[in-house]
Amino acid sequence: MTQSAVSKQVSQLEEMINTPLFYRAAQRIFLTPAGKRYYLEILDVLKHIEAATISLMSTADNVETLKLTSHPTFCARWLVPAMLGFNQAYPLISVEIKEQVGPFFSEKHDVDIAFLYGSGVWAGMHSIKLFDEHCVAVCSPAYLEKISSAGLGVNDVTLLHLISRPSAWHDYFKQQSISIENNFNGPRFDTFYAIISAALMGYGVALVPQRLVEPEMLSGQLVKVWDYIAKGNGSYYMSYPLSLDNSYRVKAMLNWITKYLEQHAEMDRP
Q1: DSSP 8-state assignment for residue 155
Q2: pTM for this predicted structure
Q3: Where would one find coiled-coil regions in this protein (predicted)?
Q4: Domains along the chain?
């Protein structure tokens, strides 16, 4: 589409809504306040149209698209490694992964499989349990050396918190019958990914699912501060709509993940 054609369509839109969307001056254009508001309101729709168009252009007629969703940290640290080799094993399945932030509602999300944390019950979904959550208290070797050499006790360390789990540290110490004064104090982060990054940089002690920091613990980048391992209140699940019970693409992913879990069964042990 030519620049003049785009300009004409914009002018027609402004005429239709009876509202200017751009300031035009010296061969330059700027969004008006109404234009900015309109842009922000339709941005998600435009992105969806773009993604659907690219998907259609890149997918052959005989290729199925498998839509997955997962929490960002779980996606980067577990799901992506678990899927290594899937494309080669199933060349007729094209995978799309969207990050899931906030509560999951099946009726609002256009997905084939959702990797979720919780009780395993989501309306209209069949859930398969992947594994329980076991959380460990970890920090960088430098931070551990700092608190050890200074003789700092449990009340003196900086605890890193996940905003969505405000009582995690309180529960961790309560399970051990340990009384601590400042278990609600300390920096708060929106994701486990941010907490892990902060721990790696020496900000303090992170309470995180062991599976999500397995590489850093094996390499020595993160070390346990205390030996106790806390069982989370929920578990991780692979959930899909009941309507896709016989879907080839869904069955393929279920089989792949099941085999991956069997091959890495030792990771289930806390």
Answers
A1: T
A2: 0.72
A3: none
A4: 3-58 (1.10.10.10), 66-270 (3.40.190.290)
